[in-house]
Amino acid sequence: MSERYDGGASGGFDGAHHALRELVLAATVRIHRTGVGYALDEPDTFLGSGFFIAPNWVLTCAHVVHGEGGEEVAVVYESGPEEGSSVVTGQVAATLPEHLERRVGGSWPAPDLALVRLREPVGHDCVYVSERPTAQYGEGRVFYAGWTVTGGQLQILDGFLSVQGTIGGWSSGVQMRLGQNDLPNGVSGGPVIDPVRGEVIGVLKSRADHGNGGTSTGIERLRTLQVPPGAVRTEHDDVYQTVFHAHDRYHRDRQQPSDSRRPTWADVQGELGARPGRTLDPDRRGELLGRLAELPPPDTTRDLLDLLDSLPNFQVPSLMPAPRGWRDGLGVLYENAQRDGALKLVLDYAMLVMTFPRLATPSNLAAEQALWDWVKQASTGLDPGYRSRLARQRARHLGQRRSRTHTGSGEAPRRGAHGRPPQERSADAGPRLTVLLEVLPRGWEPDRCDWSISVARADGEVTRLHEAERTPLDDLASYVVAPLAEAFRRCDESERPVALHAALPHQLLGLAVDEWRLRPDGPPLGAQRPVVVRCSDRDQLPGDGEFGTGGTRGDPDEDDDERRDRWSRLHARDAQAEVLDCDDGVREPVPPVAELRGLAPRTVPVLCRLGDQRYEDDSAALGRIVHAGFGVVLWRRWRSRPEAVCGEFHRGAKKAVDDGDGAAFLPDLVHGLRMKVRDGLTEAFWADGIALLYDDPHQPLPGAGDLLEAP
């Protein structure tokens, strides 16, 4: 924590912190079972705490509402210190995790968050939520509030907790450990506040089993809410954007002239001396966020990351979870801007948001104009050369907008691979991305593995997002899904989901990664996006003799040259499928390595019976093919079907490969087949269980030293 507030020597408040406390208490609510009626002070119906995060939206813990989306609760709130309590019905709109039947050790798994939408509009106060990327503290104190039952009466309480570090990882969600104060029953779901900056950073999750304190989940975990399919065209397409656009407009509007004499969050933050990003005071920050919230959100997280990456002299940090909305992008700049260029960086960001491709509707044009007015006012003290560049950028955008209006319908132009129109996409967008899952077995623990998830660019740059050790191999899918979902959100484009490459050792190439699901009721990964496997240990494959074929392992450099040559020839000519392990329904062993090397360069090996285990060396069949220099292999997982179905698979595989658009399109072709199987199209049933090795030698995997090292 860069700054600390200790509550004074005696833990007391000064004037600004008294005002902050009143704002927090005004927005903190009680969650009750429905049917509370007029018995608002009945402890028997009390479930826990929550707080207004945006007009008509309450944030609390999932275990407090203890139900899936659609369950109703009663929200009890106070409009003012002397106005008494009111009750309104709310509906659980979203939870994290999404499927709350998964309980861990008798408690709800992290992040343990729930958003409740009120059934009718009411007047109430809202907290101010931090837009910083991750609110994790190594020292200092935080302020909290919540409701509890004391002496048979419902009472609100507040206090300070010391920050004692973080716990958890991707499988459970990162949480802050809090101590040095008692957390009674009922306060779960209440807000956790940074008293230095005057903003909410987390939600109380649980109290400690032994001793004082408990845990808190960071607000930024809401970014991991399920992303709706397709591009997000308006804020109402995505509950995350709905909530935070309403939040930012609320705090912008609260700064407007009114009859109220109560201080706002921006007023109090100003008294505290908070200065986000070392350049914006709370008033200007609130106005900017409110104007950003008038514009449609970015179509995808990938579009937002590309936009941030195009900022001059700015390195986008690898944030977990990645930013999702315009406010999150602004928060990224706070912690990473150079002190002498912070304001220009914010203005450059605002200009990129303003010129982001969108429909030229009257409301969007008005919102862009309002944002430009803010930029003009904020840039008045900067050098004339920079102000002139901003004016030219604005004029160029208006010219392009007029040109599109005169030549078309006025709608946003067709988007390219990175969500930008082809004519506007710059080299800053970078090469196409893939998500890379690497699995490394532990030789001394054959039932466990180490694994990692990275984002790989076509130019070879790899960014590691997550890694773990000693995961049970049989449970790998359950551990991997959360970080995979985050990686996909970072990389998916509005018109094209990012591909998943599973880098597996040769003995695990048959792992059914494409059949894993991010959610129990969701589609298999292979029906959601292209999923291919790659061999991560080509340099460690057994010699020919160990494959039961006679001979020894050849020179590694010669093997690599042979692999590259076969890949190039295959992709230069039409591909041709050849079934290697089945002849008219009769199972045959895969040929030896020497014979495989003699197959024509345009050959795509096809396996019909992988998993049949008819022969002793069946488990080595894929390794043998890889050892022979093949980078493209097609197979299906044998499911003990009648022999008669082999013919349909043979015909379907040959037609898909031989009549297709070439080997380079096989990942997309297989993805399409998996979608058709998922949709129940009988003409694609022959492809049930289909899998693809697509291992480009020109895109080498990270070296062994980049993987998790064995102890």
Considering the chains and any ligands shown, give keywords for the structure.
about 30% helix; 6-stranded antiparallel beta barrel; globular; alpha+beta
Descriptive account of the structure:
- This protein has 711 residues and is an alpha+beta fold.
- Helices cover 28% and strands 23% of the residues.
- The chain has 17 helices and 23 strands.
- The protein has helices spanning 15-27, 62-65, 239-254, 265-272, 282-292, 301-309, 326-336, 342-354, 362-378, 384-407, 476-491, 525-528, 556-572, 593-597, 621-627, 646-658, 666-678; strands at 28-32, 46-54, 57-60, 72-78, 85-96, 113-118, 141-150, 153-167, 175-179, 191-194, 199-207, 214-218, 433-442, 445-457, 462-472, 499-504, 531-535, 576-579, 582-583, 586-587, 603-610, 632-637, 690-694.
- The strands form 5 sheets. It has a 6-stranded antiparallel barrel with strand order 1-2-3-6-5-4. Strands 7-8-9-12-11-10 form a 6-stranded antiparallel barrel. A 5-stranded mixed β-sheet has the order 15-14-13-16-17.
- A hairpin with a 4-residue loop joins β10 and β11.
- The longest helix has 24 residues, at 384-407.
- The model is unreliable at 1-12, 409-430, 548-552 and 704-711 (pLDDT under 50).
